[in-house]
Design goal:
Length: 447
């Protein structure tokens, strides 16, 4: 009996100790490394750590309150009113007002917005539109409409770097942006004291630092997923959240829609997926991925070189520039596309002179799992009309089909977003757009 009691006591003690080791606790500095610019739209990692939107989209696609605690619509979705949460302060200590929200939104969207006008009304913000705005709460959660304070100044933050998020800028030196925990954040203090965000780090250097224990979160490009597995990295992923596409200018040499259609028919997406992206991408000729639209199969993605020649009809435009941005993978992708187009009779030269060329290889983030708001966001991102009459699959398909018929955007692949993490991280998850939710991460064995 005594022996049984002793064994039970040991098991209970071990269980308590195990729970204590994994229970989130405060303290420590999280070390993150990225290739890009932490402030760049739409995927700068620092942006969602420092700024909040009026709403946010959950991983299941539902919309939740953020800076706005509630909202309602009138006049058949032509008018929306969002009431701000009380007691919220910017990280510089000043209280946020509805006028601040309006100023921020007008700065981030000076024209061609989802709304016609936005104004402050007491502790609320009112949006009005000439057209119905049925998915406005979802749209306001996107990166484009995060709220920042203008005209602020401090030792480390100027202009638009003051927000209401879980972290605040605390300095930049030697290629490292330091973000300090916002002690008075409206969602509560984050677990870690600070984030050191090393920027413009090559994937090779990121992985080396992770292996040597000098980094906690690093990027894993889709084409290097297998290599990460071979190195036994702990990888978390958000499936198919980034659209790789080609924007085609409809001015100048490519103003003829038949030439644009010929380009669209010339590209071999399967080679891009299988060879360059190591079968980690989903081939697509549709704007929305199959997992949320259900109709992407109606847009055939196969290459048709004969049709491309017929559409070109002997026309030979001047040399075209294919602009791209990024490292070796984007360069290889641009070179492969240029080869496809040369086989169709086009003279194309890849160039790293981003952002615009006759053709532009670019990525578009899918920030929302709702098909209607996701499609509207992508259309707006490409400066296309975004009037969608209702949420039915037939209405969405019709709008998407008419848009793609202009061949100003040629969808190629949907890519996952992946990160490798160190063993001392607890509760690491990705948000709806596939970015790390670092405000809820805690560290174990903090040095």
């Amino acid at each position: 009996m005594l022996r049984r009691f002793a064994i039970s006591f040991v098991l209970i003690a071990l269980g308590i100790a195990c729970h204590a080791r994994t229970r989130p606790h405060y303290g420590g500095t999280l070390r993150v490394e990225i290739e890009g610019d932490p402030w760049q739209r739409p995927d700068g990692m620092a942006r969602r750590l420092v700024f909040d939107g009026l709403t946010r989209v959950n991983r299941d696609g539902t919309v939740s309150p953020a800076l706005a605690v509630r909202w309602s619509s009138e006049a058949d979705n032509h008018r929306w009113q969002f009431w701000l949460r009380t007691g919220i302060h910017f990280s510089d200590g000043t209280g946020i007002t509805s006028a601040d929200v309006v100023t921020s939104l007008n700065a981030s969207c000076p024209s061609d917005c989802p709304w016609t006008a936005v104004r402050a009304a007491g502790s609320s913000v009112i949006f009005t539109g000439d057209m119905p705005m049925p998915v406005l709460p979802s749209l306001l959660a996107s990166d484009a409409y995060l709220i920042s304070k203008s005209g602020a100044s401090s030792e480390f933050a100027t202009g638009g770097l003051v927000g209401t998020g879980a972290f605040q800028p605390a300095g930049f030196a030697n290629g490292t942006l330091t973000l300090a925990a916002n002690e008075n954040g409206w969602q509560g203090r984050p677990f870690v004291d600070a984030i050191q965000l090393r920027v413009h780090r090559s994937i090779h250097d990121q992985w080396l630092d992770l292996g040597l224990g000098r980094a906690d979160v690093v990027e894993v490009p889709a084409e290097q997923m297998r290599a990460a597995q071979q190195q036994h990295f702990a990888v978390i992923s958000a499936p198919l959240v980034t659209l790789l596409a080609i924007e085609i200018s409809d001015n100048g040499a490519l103003s003829n829609p038949l030439l644009r259609a010929s380009i669209a028919a010339s590209i071999d997406r399967s080679v891009l997926s299988n060879v360059i992206f190591q079968k980690q991408a989903e081939v697509t000729a549709s704007v929305l991925p199959a997992r949320i639209s259900g109709y992407s199969f109606l847009f055939p993605p196969d290459r048709d070189l004969n049709r491309a020649h017929d559409l070109r009809g002997g026309l030979t435009p001047r040399q075209l520039n294919l602009a791209y941005q990024g490292g070796p993978t984007m360069q290889l992708t641009a070179q492969r596309i240029a080869l496809n187009l040369r086989e169709a009779g086009f003279n194309v030269q890849p160039t790293n002179a981003f952002p615009r060329g006759d053709l532009t290889l670019r990525t578009i983030n899918l920030e929302d799992g709702n098909p209607r708001s996701a499609l509207e966001s992508i259309l707006r991102d490409t400066d296309a009309p975004a009037a969608i009459p209702d949420s039915s699959p037939s209405a969405l398909y019709k709008v998407e089909h008419e848009f793609l018929e202009h061949h100003t955007l040629v969808p190629l692949l949907y890519l996952p977003r992946m990160f490798a993490i160190s063993g001392r991280l607890h509760d690491m998850t990705l948000d709806a757009a596939g970015f790390p939710d670092l405000a809820n991460v805690s560290l174990g064995d903090t040095p």
